[in-house]
Amino acid sequence: MNHTELMQSIRTYWDWRASSFDNTSARQQSWWQVYNHILNGSARQCILDAGTGTGFIATGLAEKGHMVTGIDLSPVMLQLARAATAEKKINLQFLAADAVDPPFRPESFDAVVCRNLLWTIPDPGLALRRWHKILKSGGKLVVSDGIWRSSGFKGVLNQYVRLIFSVMKKGFSSSTPLRFAVAYGSCRDKLPYLNGIHADAARELLLGSGFSQPVQHEHLFTRHPYPTGYGSRFFVISAARP
Asked: Which ranges in 86-175 belong to alpha helices (H)?
C-alpha cells in the first residue's frame, strides 16, 4: 500500500465516522478551555489546528479572539465543522489538507495544536518537523494523544470481543469496530503507533523534532474528558520552537 492508498483508506473511514465523532469527544468545552489556558493569555495569535475533525477545538480558540485555521483530510468532517460555525462571527477557516504536509509557508503560525492525531500518522516525526517549520520562533505546539488499544494477545482478544458485540448490536454497516478493522487492517504495518502512543514516547518525538521544554497538562482537566472506559491513558503536552 503506497501513501496515497493509505491516506484514501484513512480518509474513507473518517468520512464515515464523522457523524458520530463528537459522541466520543465528550466535554468539548473543557478541551478548548485547556488548550486556551496552555496558549496563555488573551494576546491574539495565529493558530493552526492540525487534524481539526469537526472543529470544536478550533472553534473554542477562535471564540477567544484568535485567528484559527483548521485542516483535515476528511471533507465530511470539514463539512460538519463549517455547518457548526456558519453563523458564528469569528476568525476561523477550514481547509482540506493533509496535516502531515500542511500547505503553509515557514513561520506562518504562532501556535500549532492537534488532538489524537499522532497515532494515525505514518511518520509522526516528519509531521512534527514540518509543524516546527511553519511555527514562528518562540511559537508553541500543543499535542494530545494516548493509548487507545491494548497490544498483545489480551488486546487482540478484547478487540474481537468488542467487534462481535458491536456487530450484534448495531449490524455490519453501523459497527465502528468493524469499520475501523476494515479501514486500518491493511495499514497496520504503516502506522507505528496504531494502538496509541505513551506520553514518554511523544516527548522524545518532540525533542527529536527540534522542540524544547515539553510540559504535560492533563492535570488541568477538572473531570476526565472522555466517556467512561475510553482514553484512560491520555496526555496533553506543550513544547516550544526555540
From this structure: 124-134, 152-170
pLDDT tens digits, 173-196: 455 667 777 778 878 889 999 989
61-82 pLDDT tens trace: 999 999 999 999 999 999 999 9
Dist CA 140 CA 137 (whole Å): 9
Cα(149)–Cα(161) distance, rounded to whole angstroms? Answer: 13
**Looking at residue 43, what is its pLDDT?**
80
Q: What does the radius of gyration of the chain's CA atoms come to, in whole angstroms?
A: 17
Integer Cα distance of 4 and 145 in angstroms = 24
Q: What does the angle CA 108 – CA 29 – CA 237 come to, to the nearest 5 degrees?
A: 50
Rounded-to-integer distance, Cα 194 and Cα 147, Å: 9
Stretch (H or E) spanning 38: helix 28-39
Domains along the sequence of the chain with CATH: 3-148+193-240 (3.40.50.150)
